[in-house]
Specification:
heterodimer, A: alpha/beta, six-stranded mixed beta sheet, four-stranded antiparallel beta sheet, B: about 300 residues, 2 strands
Amino acid sequence: MSERVESRLDVRGLVAGYVADLPIVRGVSLEVEAGEIVSVIGPNGAGKSTLLKAIAGSVRVSAGAVYLAGRDITGLPTHALARAGVAYVPQTGNIFTTLTVHENLLAGGHTIGRELSGRIERAYAAFPDLAARRTARGRVLSGGQRQMLAIARALLIEPAVMLLDEATAGLAPRVAADLFARLRRLAGQGVAILMVEQNARAALRASDRGYLLSEGATRLSGPAADLLADPAVGEIYLGGRRRMA
Amino acid sequence: MILQLLADGVLSGAIIALGAIGMALAMKILGFANFSHSELVTWGAYLALILVLIGPGGAPIGPFSFGWTVVGGLVLAGILTAALAVSVDALVFRPLRRRGAVPVTIIFASFGAALVLRNGLLLWWGPQAHYYTRELQMAVQVLPGVRIMPDQVFVLGLSLALVAALHLFLTYTRFGIAMRAVAESPTLARVSGIEVERVIRWTWVISGGLAAVGGVFFGLTVQIRPEMGFNLLLPIFAAAILGGLGSLWGSVLGGLIIGLAESLSVLVAAPGYKPAAPFVFLMLILFLRPTGLFGEEQA
């Protein structure tokens, strides 16, 4: 993972949604520098997941733009985005349950040539739990193993940007903490990490900066520590009928 | 008598299985039941017939009733039918997919494609039966009371070889794994950098090619008629569903069960009920296992 492309992610005035004329994301701008972990938090229905999907190319963008290291990648087909260095770990259905662990990694590294087997071995070294279960089908893995596999799969492309949707949902606190620690190491290697989390407090603690999203728009942004201390954050959560977790 | 019926059932089961594998593959990857699939069987048989009629003829090979022209016709028909399947997709199904059509719409479009394909052949060739060869061949006694034609051995052997080759392809090659990935989740496959449209194209190539081979086999062991594929449509569907859609060996087993059920039904019912027999089996098995024999529930 040495020669990574310069990986600043820049989102400018993004408008996106599932149906035309009904935007879920209404003009969001954000940036993630290389080596930075940035969290998007917000109440249910704020458009957090849709924002990630729009960046990852699975939801139609009707206005605004996404730049990766200055290159406009808005509206590229999803598979082309993976080739451009954008790795996306969806919230659900993020592994192939009918394929084995090893096949999941082979499928995940579909775009990689003969280097793939070396990278898969490195993934096994980084995730020994997966190495022990390489012939097990995805559907028999535990929740934590599934997340590890989803992340290992996404990492195969040696991404410049990693988008994670609720990666710690349903995980035991210790497993979640281990995952955040891994993400920190990854950022240390120069990856720009953008994650969406329901558990706002835990996410902000693991992040450098945060954006608070509500009704499809950015309400607050700043260093994670400031957001953690800001009483307005809790109020917006309450406004969305949900306490800050 | 029973052994002979078993042998006949296995043979027609092999042909049904070739159709069912392609249909199940397309159903799993494209997410709709393709009613025009069995017309690819018919087109395969006729495309091979054209090549046999314009080809150099040639003496039968060994104990078989056919010469190298039929073998060449089989290969070319496989390639041409694969191209036909890709073209039908480009003309009919892909535009619907792009516009986000629901599966029911695409299923009805496949009915339309089936009518055009079938009646096109009827206009072109007329309703009468055709044959690849008029050569007689001697049935060989393989077991006491069981006689099979050398052609039937050829059909069974090649069917098995094709299924084995497809199994190896889907299990061990990276493209085969990508196909299985798309079959489970096109969304996640795209996220992984897999170009789904390319996988779909190759799915048509494989299912069209297998359908054509099934058609040529049917023509070789029965006869070639414009409605031959249509008559195989329901058995092919039954076999694909029985096997638990998308499972290769499930489709093979489903094909064999349907073929055997048809052939053995004459032991217990009048021959007129023969086409109904597979569906009795289908209902029984689906009562017990709603996902089919090899069906996997995704979690």
